[in-house]
Structures are given as C-alpha cells and as structure tokens.
Amino acid sequence: MSSWFDKCMPKIKDVMPYINEAVSSLKHVDGVKSVHIWGSYAKNIKKPNTRIKDVDILAKTNFHSGDLLAVDKGIVESISTDNYLENQGYDPLAIKFSQKFLTFSEYNVDCWAISRDRKLVHWGPICTNKQESEHIGREAEKYAYNNVGIKKDISKSAEHVRNNWYNHYCSYLNQCFEGMPTGWYKAEDVKVREIISQAIKI
Prior knowledge:
Elements: H1 12-23, E1 32-38, H2 39-43, E2 55-61, H3 65-69, H4 73-77, H5 82-87, H6 92-102, E3 109-114, E4 120-123, H7 130-148, H8 159-176, E5 184-186, H9 192-198, E6 200-201
Parallel strand pairs: 2-3
Antiparallel strand pairs: 1-2, 1-6, 3-4, 4-5
C-alpha cells in the first residue's frame, strides 16, 4: 500500500490497483456493513487520467453516531480493556473500528462513516456544512496557486510543482482546523441516500 501516494496527486489509474488491498481488512471489522469509495475518485472513475488530492473511504456501520462521536485519538491510542472502556461509557467495537481507520492516516485518505442512525461522520475536523467546506476548499486552492505562482491547471504541472502546490494547499487547511482534536466529527445538512448513490461499493 506504500506506493499509493509516492507521487503527489496521483492519477486514478495509479491508485486503482491498491483500493481493494487497502480496504480488505476494514470490511471484516465488527460493526462494518459495507465499504465504499466516495468523492472525487468515485466521480471520476471513468476518467483514469484524472489526478486526485485524496481518496475518500466510506464505511456503512452498525454503530450509533453518539458512540462514534465519543471517540477521539486519545482513547483510540490508549491501552484499555473492553471492560474499562464500557465502564467509561465507550463502545469498544466503535474504538476498534476507529483504530482500523487510523491505519490509513499515513496516506492521503479521508475516512468517513455512516452510522446506524443515518449520520455522516468524518475522522478529523471538517466544516459543518457543504457550503463552508466548498468555500474553504476554494480559498485553499487560491492560496496554493498564489504561493506557487502559477495560474494553470495544477494537474498538468510537473511533479515538483504539484508537490509545492499541494503542501501549500494542506497548510491552509491545517491552519483552518488548528487546535481541534482528532476524532469523529458529524457533517450537517447531508442526505445519506444521496451519498450512497454517489459512492462505489468495493
């Protein structure tokens, strides 16, 4: 799996051979009903030369959103027995599921889950709604283009230029969410049925 993002902003055809390998273990985690690819990868699946910034992995689960939202990086990384976690009000299976997602953290993977009460949650801070997310995304791209000093489509640039652009893009996003703890965050104003219709089951 290490060759997913050896190159910055890989093409879909570069990522495709690794998708099944990446999610195979996630599909067998207790509480996971199905696993999907979402976002720009799913939208451009028929355009193999399209470059993407990240891969969105979406898991449909049997966990209640409250049990997921209670989980943060601290409890995931702690060494605790199931008994202790239950006594503290956590669902141990929700924590094990979250631990599995953390294994993707070294790659450019956005981890999403749909809870049994039909809420969409994301591992790591996000904007609360689509409009705010799109606005910050546009501002991050503008910031990156200004700092790199080009105005053309970044996907057609040389790799060292893409790397520089992507570093500035991520830097802007990181500043927006600086100080927010790592854990599950709920997305507002979303229709789960619409999300599933746009995703590809794997």
